[in-house]
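Customer escalation, tier 2.

The customer says the design service returned an amino acid string that "doesn't look like it belongs to this structure." They asked us to rerun it and document both sides in this ticket. The original structure tokens are below, unchanged.
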């Protein structure tokens, strides 16, 4: 019988790219948003919520090749966006 893994694991290379991408996003976009007059907490919330969701989906689709359908990757992005938004909001404002 074929096993189906519900949790998506990815390689060390993908984890390294994820952390580098998030570091660069935080170092570049947070000062820019803060320069436009957006509060530091709000810019952290926006950059990390959208960045984590987009980066995870991009890694799973393009590097790991886990999803072949655009609909599933879009659903994953929206789910991650919702969960990351709740987690980041509770960390920053809770």
């Amino acid at each position: 019988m074929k096993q189906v893994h519900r949790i998506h694991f990815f390689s060390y290379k993908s984890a390294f790219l994820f952390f580098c991408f998030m570091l660069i996003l935080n170092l570049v976009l947070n000062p820019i948003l803060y320069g436009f007059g957006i509060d530091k907490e709000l810019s952290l919330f926006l950059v990390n919520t959208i960045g984590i969701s987009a980066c995870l989906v991009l890694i799973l689709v393009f590097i790991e090749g886990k999803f072949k359908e655009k609909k599933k990757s879009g659903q994953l992005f929206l789910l991650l966006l919702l969960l990351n938004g709740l987690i980041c909001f509770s960390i920053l404002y809770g």
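Tier 2 assessment: The sequence is consistent with the input. The chain is about 75% helix and 0% strand. The chain has a mean pLDDT of 88. Sent an explanation to the customer and offered a walkthrough call.
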